Inverse folding.
């Protein structure tokens, strides 16, 4: 399969990230308001006429309750412009990279020339269902595991740590590195260009600053020194390596990317920030749900004609620390280029918004460092993994 050449990124933005576990400030913002402010921020920053946008594809954690059905269409029509437009809502974990892929596929098929792909997670206000809810015991039986195992991040993480020989000390060090890197970037103001401010309507219309909530990683050190093992796997066991400190807390976040054809960008006198080179979607066995990231990355690299040594920035989802560590061992990218601005362990797991959040951070970082190629990869419970490669001009 040849590399994609005609789909370009005009801009990408995200909201500040509020860690749900701490009752972050974004809990005061209704999900539709949060999405509306980020979409408006993207359109205003680009300076494009909203009527030029032909479709909005939105990934969300639930098409119900406060998220409402067809959240993208409702928000666009009600808050961005009075002109309605086609919109699709996707309810799949980590699905904003799916929204991005669908957007690019539609563009290349000629369905439209200008499209927005977005993701929203608003767990504080909308709630979240247990990840194993709705599991099918019959399907799980086909993979020689129970329904909980087929949808358990804890069991998948421990299985990967055991199989790859990743010790708890390595997981501790990686998690601390995520905190340190994100905090340093935040202090330097390097996240500012990718974040659009959000107005908190619940407290006198005050505006939320563009600094993210980044927790301290000191508890990891205390845990290690005290010998406590807060196992992430409910089955317990003294030989378990993964614990809750190696997992990302859920975070409220919206991220959005404006995509169009290169021809339409020229007609609108807009300068693309990057182009899409390739996508990949693969699956792994459910009991090794996070193992597909390596395969997805290698497939995307092969399709783009890019070697590991050519990657200037890599974003591997940090919902679990074991995943990027196993990926690094398999692919061989230098640690300097792997999640160089921290990741979900420090910033929080953006759920359905994670794919576009990672894309947004990667794009900004590539520009700041003068890099050319960037790879972003996400995994999902059930065994699927998706990767995308972008190239700066």
């Amino acid at each position: 399969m040849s590399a994609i050449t005609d789909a370009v990124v005009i801009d990408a933005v995200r909201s500040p990230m509020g860690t749900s576990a701490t009752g972050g400030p974004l809990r005061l913002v209704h999900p539709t308001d949060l999405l509306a402010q980020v979409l408006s921020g993207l359109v205003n920053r680009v300076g494009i006429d909203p009527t030029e946008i032909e479709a909005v594809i939105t990934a969300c954690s639930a098409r119900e309750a406060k998220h409402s059905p067809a959240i993208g269409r409702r928000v666009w029509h009600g808050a961005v412009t009075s002109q309605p437009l086609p919109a699709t809502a996707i309810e799949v974990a980590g699905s904003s990279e799916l929204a991005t892929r669908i957007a690019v596929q539609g563009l290349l098929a000629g369905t439209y020339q200008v499209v927005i792909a977005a993701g929203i997670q608003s767990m504080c206000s909308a709630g979240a269902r247990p990840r194993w809810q709705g599991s099918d015991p019959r399907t799980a039986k086909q993979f020689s595991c129970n329904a909980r195992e087929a949808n358990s991040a804890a069991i998948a993480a421990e299985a990967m740590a055991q199989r790859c020989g990743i010790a708890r000390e390595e997981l501790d060090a990686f998690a601390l590195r995520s905190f340190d890197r994100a905090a340093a970037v935040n202090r330097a103001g390097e996240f500012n260009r990718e974040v659009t401010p959000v107005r908190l309507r619940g407290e006198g219309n005050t505006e939320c600053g563009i600094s993210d909530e980044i927790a301290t990683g000191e508890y990891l050190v205390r845990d290690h020194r005290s010998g406590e093992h807060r196992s992430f796997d409910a089955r317990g066991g003294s030989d378990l390596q993964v614990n809750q400190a190696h997992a990302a807390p859920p975070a409220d976040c919206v991220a959005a990317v404006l995509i169009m054809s290169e021809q339409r960008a020229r007609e609108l006198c807009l300068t693309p920030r990057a182009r899409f080179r390739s996508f990949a979607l693969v699956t792994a066995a459910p009991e090794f749900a996070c193992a597909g990231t390596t395969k997805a990355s290698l497939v995307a690299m092969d399709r783009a004609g890019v070697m590991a040594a050519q990657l200037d920035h890599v974003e591997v989802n940090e919902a679990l620390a074991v995943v990027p560590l196993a990926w690094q061992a398999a692919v061989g990218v230098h640690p300097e280029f792997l999640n160089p601005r921290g990741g979900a362990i420090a910033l929080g797991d953006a759920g359905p918004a994670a794919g576009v959040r990672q894309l947004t951070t990667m794009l900004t970082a590539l520009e700041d460092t003068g890099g050319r190629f960037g790879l972003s990869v996400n995994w999902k419970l059930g065994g699927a993994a998706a990767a995308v490669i972008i190239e700066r001009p």
User: Anything to note?
Assistant: DSSP finds 14 helices and twelve strands in the chain. The domain at 276-391 is CATH 3.40.47.10 (Peroxisomal Thiolase; Chain A, domain 1).
